[in-house]
Amino acid sequence: MKKNMLDGFKEAYRRKFKFYDEDILMSIWCGQRMVDTIRKKGFGSVISLGVGHKIVSRSILKNLSDILTKFVIIEGSSKMISDFRRTINLPPNVRLVKSLFEEFGTEERFDAIEMGFVLEHVDDPLSILKRYSTFLKARGSILISVPNARSLHRLIGYEAGLLDDPYRLSSFDLRLGHKRYFDLKSLETLVRRSGLKIVKREGIYLKPFSTFQLKSLHLLPEVTQALFSIGIRYPEIGNAIYLEATH
Fold this sequence. Notes:
Blueprint: H1 3-7, H2 20-41, E1 45-49, H3 55-63, E2 70-75, H4 78-87, E3 94-98, E4 110-116, H5 125-133, E5 136-147, H6 152-159, H7 171-175, H8 184-193, E6 197-204, H9 211-217, H10 221-231, E7 240-246
Parallel strand pairs: 1-2, 1-4, 2-3, 4-5
Antiparallel strand pairs: 5-7, 6-7
Helix pairs in contact: 2-3
């Protein structure tokens, strides 16, 4: 993907975007799961692919400051980088690198590589996984999350005749720069083809209805939180999939 194309997706990360609130909740949950994994394993060096909503990187900086020795954030959009620098003061052990994911290279090795909602965007996800696995320490982990084509709400929409193909990208997907949908099977196959082995799989958010329908229900925050908690156990039908992989 070209760098000037990346700048064009920035508007989809603003509050006026239809799925902004849900994207924020998903990013917060995903970021916390990744932080929990990094802390539990005592990882000190981390690569993060992309700025996005800045939520995952903020969570890493805020919650892992006592163990974080080296944090490299890779971003291809100059606009996203400018916004990031304007809103976050980076400590000395953090580097923000302007580069396409496909072009980044380093001789350094890292404990954890965070790919939160990345692989659905890139031209060649297998190449990305293979490339970044070479930057991983022997006992390190790659932390992956992607939207799920077979989310419960998409399957219900398909069975009801409201969605002709659960794998079809919507106009909103395209505005976010999505190139594909994964399901649990296709994601696991991709990860294994890259030479990695899967050590954890979780669902992110058990979403029973469309975003519009859920908003009309005015669910209590506790109910929404329960849908996230229950979703952990159902990666096959979660709104997104979270995997941890290693060598």
